[in-house]
Amino acid sequence: MIIQIQYTHDCPNAGPIIDRTRALAAAHPEVVVNAVLVQARSPVPEGFAGSPTVLIDGTNPFGGAPTEGPACVLQPPTPEEVETAILTLL
Hints:
This protein is an alpha+beta fold. It has a single domain, classed as 3-Layer(aba) Sandwich (Glutaredoxin), CATH 3.40.30. It has two helices and three strands. It has a three-stranded mixed sheet with strand order 2-1-3, covered by helices on one side. Helix 1 (14-27) runs parallel beside helix 2 (79-89). The chain is globular, with a radius of gyration of 12 Å. The chain starts with a strand and ends with a helix.
């Protein structure tokens, strides 16, 4: 399972999600976590729907419309919701 967390450098919600997801991956070797920094004046990665966007095997289980520039998610998932979504799919 590949988890990609797309985030902007000033996103206060990204750090806790990245930390929680990496801790979960440490206990589950089949989980790989990639954190992708989205920057201004650079192309946004595929699937980016605001910071933080969490993709599990390329799918965003939390919804959100793709955006073409760095932006924040108005109601981001909590670290607990991300963990639950991952564990459900393991």
